[in-house]
Amino acid sequence: MTTVNKLNWDLLENYKTVDLEVPKDSVLNVRVIPDAVCDEVVRYVKTLKEQYFRMRTMLHSIPTDGTKECLYGFLGDVQQPREFNRFLKAIAPTIDGIKPTEHIINRYDPGMYLPGHIDSDIYRANMVVNLVEEGDGIEIEGVFYEDVKGHCKMFPTNSAPHSVPPVKKQRYIIIYLYE
To answer: What pTM was computed for the model?
Structure first.
């Protein structure tokens, strides 16, 4: 029998959810999750078996760099252990008082990347929360923004063109999608 790794729910005892408004443009470096909670998410994700992750090799968005090829690990709602899914919901920031519909973990191992693209979907907002800060980051409209743990980048329905250059260290992010 396998021992299930438990999440530290005590971290959420005095947790206050951040509430933001739907962005008109990209919002950069807004703190939405405390460092200790980010560390707990990363600690837990590192305990998951590799089978939980789906390797994405093709973009599911509108390419802006002429390629749909990409490489990163995807952990969607369906693949997540139930307790972890509840934890991600509990820490999720709200937009106009509304919790996200989906929460995804993307893992980038050294050398993995996401080419330039525009997110265009049924969601009214897309929030990317950095879980680590190792010198990697996201490029938005040609400007590189280094990851800051617990801070987010937020995009409206049709996002600005953005990409993740090949990472040097392991990178983890949460993507929250809001209807």
So the answer is: 0.92
